[in-house]
């Protein structure tokens, strides 16, 4: 991970909204206020990138933020702020996750209100226009026809003000910056339809096109609302990392006492205490104490790691056994977990969005439509066509050029497919996720918690001697559970769970286990010694612990070839070696079948895990993977780098932990399996709410079908536009026919998308690619 200083949400401005305190960093995550669509984001990025010294500007409409990199010696951030403000937006220090989510919620509310107002008044415009289209001479000729046309225009005014004005302003801004998109074209078509309608009324003609302009605005607003709702999750990706850390820590004060203080107030060099069972809030170096820490959330390593004075400890790790005194080496904002968040933001900013493809098409259509409109006007004049008719042809080109079908082609198909997929517990975040999922040819999977259960389980018990009171697996597990009661450690948790799940203890709960007298139990680094009134001395721990306690061990039993590589816990009673319990992180029941189906679909599979060599190779062998497809001891950045090296491939990454966040964001599509952490869920494009890794093949099948419909919709929309532009430019159709053709194109993509929800159920057996 690049440790370049980074200014994020933790670096709040000392006063007001000044950006001066961020100037030396050279890189910062900033908020952009005022954007309401992806075109706004594109325009903002274009303006920033034109400033000399700006190295990159990745603007996200979903989070209203920009990941900005600049040369501190060249760029003045206040100058950059001024450029953005002239565009109509505000550049501010990064907002908190809560503020960002609140802003998105307000945006959804505003879009909902605009759409509601548009529909309420627009339906009256449509009704009056319908009477003009299908009515007889008594309705279409003055004075009745004139009053109907005026009524259609009056009803459209609230639509123009409430829903249309933001579209027109956004279109003007993007046109000024040279990146016109959907808003620009819809604005031109709307204004042209209004102008032509006013011209017709002034000439005493009742053929008006207020309904066309209203339809343009409502269709675009609908697409924006769907997009904003589906992109809301992106704002939670970095915030979820901070949420899992404690907000305070125990800092050593000058008087020698520890005091609970906010983590943000602690500086490098301060000393803090991390109690047993507590999660570290800051990076540091252990100065006193010996303990075991669970780093699985950060590294994916399933076994706890022993730490001693001089060892590093990272925020997010859980101290399991004994208190630790730690000297802080990285404050809030510079921790390893903060840099993971930056990496996720950078990767998410690079990810494409399917809806942007529609904006690209619109940007191509804009100059073509304008050129055709002007050409049609000039040619008509040269051919002796009357000026009103020549203008009518030019305006017809603009009306039919508005790609409303393009704007809703992807969102409509996405909504239909996403609702159907949700019935199977497969949640696609946005249309881009479906497109990426449909095209993957390589799937990289985390091991711990994704392919395996993510926690050790007792796989086998082997007795070495008989004992009259401990003659069964259940009685042994009950004894061990009593000895381990109150101990915070993954292996202790597994032993207690095994006791509860033992067949003869089917009704046993954690509360029903016999209480342990703390005075008769003594804990050690590698085991526990319990004095039982009936059994005498009971020892539970590692082989080394039993040997240190004077227990003679014969040749240690080996795990069976078919058993996963894992840990062993030895048990001795009254100085005699009684039994060995084998514990391992077991493979999920559906993992092997899932990978078999993925390979059948033409998708290459591999493992990237933070765990050690043997456990990873053991899982790979059971899944039928070759050693070259197993990658172990991968750091969070290492996983992301591995995915990035597969750049020639379209890659998916499936994981469940904080350590998987950067890889989930870097891959073309990230999948969070069931029971994933909030960070993994926030960073992923696809969430498998049920079924775990076994649902991945079905998710691919859903995505491939949905993407096929999306491509068909875009194809239909583009063909409609090209054909309509040609006919309009030649004067073969009137504005009324152009409006009807535009409506027909939108209806065609809606009908095609409905096949995703009305067709036959998806097959549970994925077909090959």
Automatic annotation (TrEMBL):
InterPro entries: ATPase_P-typ_cyto_dom_N, ATPase_P-typ_P_site, ATPase_P-typ_TM_dom_sf, ATPase_P-typ_transduc_dom_A_sf, ATPase_P-type_domA, HAD-like_sf, HAD_sf, HMA_dom. It comes from the Bacteria. SUPFAM superfamilies: Calcium ATPase, transduction domain A, Calcium ATPase, transmembrane domain M, HAD-like, HMA, heavy metal-associated domain. Residues 502-518 have a biased composition (Polar residues). Pfam families: E1-E2_ATPase, HMA, Hydrolase. Residues 26-92 form the HMA domain. Keywords: ATP-binding, Cell membrane, Ion transport, Magnesium, Membrane, Metal-binding, Nucleotide-binding, Phosphoprotein, Translocase, Transmembrane, Transmembrane helix, Transport. The chain crosses the membrane at residues 111-135, 147-172, 184-202, 208-226, 360-384, 390-417, 714-733. It is found in: Cell membrane. CDD domains: HMA. It is a multi-pass membrane protein. Residues 498-518 are annotated as: Disordered. Belongs to the cation transport ATPase (P-type) (TC 3.A.3) family. Type IB subfamily. NCBIfam families: ATPase-IB_hvy, ATPase_P-type. PANTHER family: ATP7, ISOFORM B, CATION-TRANSPORTING P-TYPE ATPASE-RELATED. This is Heavy metal translocating P-type ATPase.
